[in-house]
Amino acid sequence: MPRELNVAVVGATGAVGRVFLEILEQRPFPINHLRLLASKRSAGTRVSVRGQELMVKEATLDSFDGVDIVFISAGAGVSRQLAPTAVEKGALVIDKSSAFRMAPTVPLVIPEVNGQDVEDHQGVIATPNCSTIQLVMALHPLHRVNPIKRVVVDTYQSASGAGGGAINELREQTRALSQGKSVTVEALPHQIAFNLFPHIDDFLPDGYTKEEEKMMAETRKVLHDQTIGISATCVRVPVYTCHSEAVHLEFENPMDPRQASYLLNEMPGVTVMGDSAVDSYPMPWDLAGTDDVYVGRIRKDPSISNGLAMWIVADNLRKGAALNALQIAEEVLSRDCLEIRSPSASADV
Ligand SMILES: NC(=O)c1ccc[n+]([C@@H]2O[C@H](COP(=O)([O-])OP(=O)(O)OC[C@H]3O[C@@H](n4cnc5c(N)ncnc54)[C@H](OP(=O)(O)O)[C@@H]3O)[C@@H](O)[C@H]2O)c1
Questions:
Q1: What does the CA dihedral 161, 324, 73, 206 come to, rounded to 10 degrees?
Q2: CA of 131 to the centre of ligand 1 (A)
Q3: Residue 195 burial (CB < 10 Å; 0-12/13-18/19+)?
Q4: Residue-wise pLDDT tens digits, 111-152
């Protein structure tokens, strides 16, 4: 039995943070003391976790004395500001933002795919972008038996992927439009109710968005394969929770859809739903609140040699963020590598 840890959660009042606290109720992660942190705005808010009422405090550079693990889900700027101090004070930081994902000294981990990478941490372990996690969970079991040469992925990303403000905006806009009123647009770049837009995060000079670029770079990093060609189009849709993805793959060798279905079902954390001949497939409304990555509509892509098409749905707040972060911590404990094993002079956080 591992020792009980002192844990801090930065962003405890956010969409991911709240789900993280729910997941703590469901998994036996060994906690001695739990510190809930957010911005000044939420200081004093009371939250009940594991039968205890805890008060949220403002996260500052002094928040991490005596803390063993810090989970941060408060945006990249907050991670950049707080993580180095938390690491200096001896904590392991598990970060859900994009701040450190591509840093060479920071493992980017999906435990079912590259859990062993946690052993190389220098104080920070990053969890990939929500869309990347569900994609890679489905690519990995196929790629390791038949290398994937190319991935074309189009996402259908829920409002909760942009945080609590976007969830409220979808709710308020839906209500307003149903009553014939005008809408307010603040949290997202355009009206999301009864609409969708191919614009998540900022645009880059090459015409892709940062979200698309993250999916492409992070997929290669987690799979330890810089040769895979990937093109992503990320779309925000009026769904509260769960991201969906239409994926087209090109393999080195032929991939029979039945073999793909078998391999995906064997992968821990992946569930195959229905088959191409049956009117049954994953949908966000049904799967919000669940832990697995669901794959359906597995079929040959006849437009290329060795092509396969499929449809992937997962809860972006759970496996896409909070659950993956807690699983990373579980992996660290099971591998007994909470402390840095081989300090690197070039740690760049
Ligand atoms: N949503 C997803 O599906 C998803 C998936 C993967 C990764 N992530 C990442 O997780 C992070 C949080 O996302 P979210 O969806 O939970 O956003 P959110 O709902 O907007 O929540 C943001 C959280 O950060 C806190 N915060 C804001 N400024 C802060 C500051 N200066 N100091 C300390 N805490 C501060 C907020 O506290 P207050 O309540 O006090 O404002 C709130 O708890 C982001 O980096 C995001 O990229 C999100």
A1: -50
A2: 17
A3: middle
A4: 999 999 999 999 999 999 999 999 999 999 999 999 999 999
Q: Which of 121, 140, 143, 243 is catalytic?
A: 243
CATH of the domain at 52: 3.40.50.720
Q: Is 130 a catalytic residue?
A: yes
**326 vs 112, 175, 213, 266, 317, CA distance in Å?**
13, 35, 25, 22, 12
50-63 pLDDT, tens digit each: 999 999 999 999 99
Q: Cα of 310 to ligand 1 centre, how many Å?
A: 31
161 lines ligand 1 (CB under 6 A): yes
**What is the number of the ligand 1 atom nearest to the C-alpha of 18?**
16
Same domain, residue pair 88 and 137: no
Cα 317 from Cα 338, distance rounded (Å): 25
pTM value?
A: 0.97
Range of the domain at 256: 131-316
Query: Given pLDDT bands bounded at 50, 70 and 90, which one contains residue 216?
Result: very high
- Tokens 């660290």 belong to residue: 332
The C-alpha atoms of residue 35 and residue 55 are separated, in whole angstroms, by: 8
* CATH code (residue 303): 3.30.360.10
CB of 157 sitting under 6 A from ligand 1: no
Please check whether residues 18 and 91 belong to one and the same domain: yes
- With respect to residue 340, please indicate whether it lies within any of the assigned structural domains: no
Centre of ligand 1 to C-alpha 15, Å, is 7
Residue 261 CA, ligand 1 centroid: distance in Å: 35
Among 47, 71, 73, 315, the mutation site with the greatest number of ligand 1 atoms within 8 A of its Cβ is 73
**Cβ–Cβ under 8 Å, residues 298 and 271:** no
277 band by pLDDT with thresholds 50, 70 and 90:
low
164 is a domain residue: yes
Whether 224 is catalytic: no
Closest by CA position to 125, among listed 138, 112, 111, 140: 111
Q: Are 265 and 282 in the same domain?
A: yes
Residue 339 lies in a domain: no
Q: Mention every residue, 6+ apart, whose C-beta is less than 8 A from residue 142.
A: 148, 249, 251, 255, 260, 263, 264, 308
